[in-house]
Amino acid sequence: CLLPLPTSAYLWLSTLDRLKITNLTGKYIFITGCDTGFGNLAARTFDKKGFRVFASCLTETGAEALKAASSERLQTLQLDVTDSDNVKKVAERIKAEVGSEGLWGLINNAGIIGPTGPTDWLKIEHFRAPIEVNLIGLINVTLNMLPLVKKAKGRIVNISSIGGRLAVNGGGYFPSKYGLEGFNDSLRRDMIAFGVKVSCIEPGLFNTELSNQTKVIKEREAIWNQLPPATKKQYGEGYLQEGKLVRMSMNTDFSLVVQCMEHALTSLHPHTRYPVGRDAKLLWIPLSNMPAAIQDFVLLRNKVKLADTSAG
Asked: Whole-structure pTM over 0.85, yes or no?
């Protein structure tokens, strides 16, 4: 068994955790997915702290609103991470701006959830969109920005999810986040020799625009309406609703995630992973480390009971 650490060891680790890099004011950072949610708050927060922020938004409306709420230092860029030409053009613009200084921080925040539900409700396109945005798009942005981050010996922060540790539903979101975790680990090891530090943030369930329950249920209903009668009979309409664990686990304080981003960017000893939210720390991450039989028991108890398993 593991022996408990002495108090002096905890104090030493706590002190290391609080050590910050000095003279980061004016350093360049690039954040994707800043229309709303974590990315929007991060862009405004780091702008106020004196970083020179490049903030990418998917929509012109999002970019205009962010620019209006920020200082003149912050630059907004319109970016669809699934568009390779768009990614290259953004990378060229940032390269021209940062010059020999390089890019201190890259925060890969852009992401979508996409439709979720039982796997036999879904078609391949339901899987493809989240994987293209959350994984392939993130990798492409990273590859284009990597030379600039290496030049600065900076930081890369990938926004994953507890969905990268435990698959709660069917759909493309969870495979995309599992893939992100694998990419994050290989990238972290590859970059150690170059002085670049790579961290992964794993938020629990947060009440963002992407996870809006009304939107989630509406997307699920659209899929339900296309299902064959036999499948509908098996599941029953009650299966359209989220389980109790999801409804009870929503966090609302986005600043918890931004605080982890800040630590990853500014600490002398950034963490490899940052679980965020009470549900992540007390439920999802511990459950992800348990045997599969226990995971299945807990998650299946949370499911709505099937109407008729014999139909089909």
From this structure: yes
